[in-house]
């Protein structure tokens, strides 16, 4: 048997936050086997890929074997799920194995999802299955390549057992790396119990971990809250610009680090629509594409509530500060969004933000109902600047619908001067040509579930470089064929 993989663990959560977790070990599965390893990420973490892929590695990555220095535990958290508060959620099928410093000195969590039941499992079986685990792997890597902050998969380990879902499916464990697993719901867990000393302790920990420059500063808690809001404003703006729908933006699925987490029922939109929803259980469209900035703000208001006693000793003053921040979130989000949209449209920043906001809003207004593919459209804009007069129009069911907007955009481009070919290249560097299109994801996952990982590997390598057009990948840049039909995704799989 190859050597057990070594990790230079340094477990601050376990050491400093007693009472915020239950020490817990993963389950011993019948025949754990690593089927996918993220070797680039392993290298970033200074881990030995060969050891991780070995039999001993599989025992570690499925949770049965705690490597030296690990302090495995199940984290406690609460959360608003679809608007309703659950005072106790927690890691019901996951454990935090430990933390390590990566090659750049950044602290990263090693977390396992699907490692068996824990004291937080409620009615659940504590398991995960191959399809959704590979989906999380793929989506995380796609987001990473798109430059969007995200948790990432280190490995996928088959457990050797079959798990009951719709039918019987291969059980699997996802090894996930995150800059932390602190969530809005972690704060809510203690705030809801009136344990304000614990909320303070958690805030101190989170500040030291994510915003160490604030340690010891006056009003550090308030500054920290604003930092979290800022990271989320930036993150959600990035989601919106690539057409990403998270699908389950419950407060337990919103990180303090600003990384995207929990790729359950997520999907990318193809044809643009503000009301796009993919999750089978999101019947009201609470987490629809266009609702995401508003939901982020709502979630951040829940976080602010938990921190009120930390913001000011006078309650009215604390409420005033929190309200001010929550109100400011809209403008903060809009600023990130506009910056990103200008890049997508080839517009240099200019003093009059209003005019550009109107221009972008005008584009979205003409897109609605025109069957426009969100990804292809932005890519086509660069082709238009290169001189292909039909590039933009041909993306619309009615090409005339975009004519007026196109003229005003071109006028704005001409007015700012400069060279269009350089501009087109800069636009291609921010407008992906390849995204995880739903039909391609389904095709890859369905083959993988039947034992053929080749389409998954192929898609992963396409998505690793989403901005560079390559020969032979034409199919990956096309919308789903008509017969693919409406797309539906599922939670808790
Ligand atoms: P999620 O929707 O995956 O973010 O999970 C929400 C909550 O349900 C978390 O507390 C999870 O740990 C828990 N959960 C999801 N699936 C399972 C499962 N199969 N067994 C136990 N707990 C689960
Ligand atoms: Mg979750």
Set out the fold topology.
Blueprint: H1 12-16, E1 21-23, E2 33-37, H2 39-44, H3 49-53, H4 55-62, E3 73-75, E4 79-81, E5 84-86, E6 94-101, E7 107-113, H5 130-145, E8 152-164, E9 168-178, H6 184-192, H7 196-210, H8 220-242, E10 244-245, E11 267-268, H9 292-311, H10 315-345, H11 353-367, H12 374-385, H13 403-416, H14 420-428, H15 438-449, H16 454-463
Adenosine monophosphate binds at residues 89-94, 120-121, 124-127, 248, 253, 262, 264, 491-492.
Description:
The chain is 43% helix and 12% strand. The mean pLDDT is 96. The chain starts with 11 loop residues before the first helix and ends in a 30-residue tail after the last helix. The chain is globular and about 60 Å long. The protein is α+β, with helices and mostly antiparallel strands and 493 residues long. The protein has a domain at 12-181. The chain has helices at 12-16, 39-44, 49-53, 55-62, 130-145, 184-192, 196-210, 220-242, 292-311, 315-345, 353-367, 374-385, 403-416, 420-428, 438-449, 454-463, and strands at residues 21-23, 33-37, 73-75, 79-81, 84-86, 94-101, 107-113, 152-164, 168-178, 244-245, 267-268. The strands form 4 sheets. Strands 2-8-9-7-6 form a 5-stranded antiparallel β-sheet, with helices on both faces.
């Amino acid at each position: 048997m190859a050597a057990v993989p070594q990790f230079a663990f340094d477990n601050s959560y376990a050491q400093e936050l007693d009472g915020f977790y239950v020490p817990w070990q993963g389950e011993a599965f019948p025949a754990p086997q690593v089927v996918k390893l993220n070797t680039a990420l392993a290298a970033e973490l200074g881990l030995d890929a060969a050891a991780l892929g070995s039999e001993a590695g599989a025992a570690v990555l499925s949770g049965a074997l705690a490597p030296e220095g690990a302090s495995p535990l199940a984290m406690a958290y609460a959360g608003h799920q679809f608007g309703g508060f659950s005072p106790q959620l927690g890691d019901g099928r996951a454990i935090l194995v430990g933390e390590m410093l990566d090659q750049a000195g950044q602290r990263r969590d090693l977390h396992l999802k699907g490692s068996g039941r824990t004291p937080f499992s409620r009615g659940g079986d504590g398991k995960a299955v191959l399809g959704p685990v590979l989906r999380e792997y793929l989506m995380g890597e796609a987001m990473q390549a798109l430059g969007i902050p995200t948790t990432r998969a280190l490995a996928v380990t088959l457990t050797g057992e079959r798990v009951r879902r719709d039918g019987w499916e291969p059980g699997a464990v996802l090894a996930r790396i995150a800059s932390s697993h602190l969530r809005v719901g972690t704060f809510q867990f203690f705030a809801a119990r009136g344990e304000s000393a614990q909320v303070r302790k958690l805030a101190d920990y989170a500040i030291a971990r994510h915003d160490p420059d604030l340690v010891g500063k006056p009003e550090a808690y308030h500054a920290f809250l604003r930092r979290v809001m800022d990271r989320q404003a930036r993150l959600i703006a990035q989601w919106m610009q690539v057409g990403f729908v998270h699908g389950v933006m419950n407060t337990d699925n919103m990180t303090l680090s600003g990384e995207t987490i929990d790729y359950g029922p997520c999907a990318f939109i193809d044809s643009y629509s503000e009301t796009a929803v993919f999750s089978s259980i999101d019947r009201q469209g609470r987490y629809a594409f266009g609702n995401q900035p508003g939901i982020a703000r709502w979630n951040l208001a829940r976080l602010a509530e938990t921190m009120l006693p930390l913001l000011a000793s006078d309650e009215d003053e604390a409420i005033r500060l929190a309200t001010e921040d929550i109100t400011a979130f809209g403008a903060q989000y809009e600023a990130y969004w506009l910056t990103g949209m200008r890049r997508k449209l080839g517009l240099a920043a200019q003093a009059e933000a209003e005019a550009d906001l109107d221009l972008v809003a005008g584009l979205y207004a003409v897109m609605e109902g025109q069957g426009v593919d969100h990804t292809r459209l932005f890519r086509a804009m660069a082709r238009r600047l290169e001189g292909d007069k039909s590039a933009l129009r041909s993306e619309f069911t009615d090409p005339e619908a975009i004519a007026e907007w196109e003229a005003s955009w071109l006028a704005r481009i001409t007015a700012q001067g400069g060279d269009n070919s350089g501009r087109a290249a800069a636009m291609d560097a921010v407008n992906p040509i390849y995204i995880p299109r739903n039909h391609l994801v389904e095709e890859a996952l369905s083959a993988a579930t039947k034992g053929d990982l080749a389409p998954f590997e192929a898609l992963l390598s396409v998505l690793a470089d989403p901005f560079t057009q390559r020969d032979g990948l034409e199919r990956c840049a096309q919308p789903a064929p008509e017969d693919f039909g409406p797309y539906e995704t599922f939670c808790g799989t």
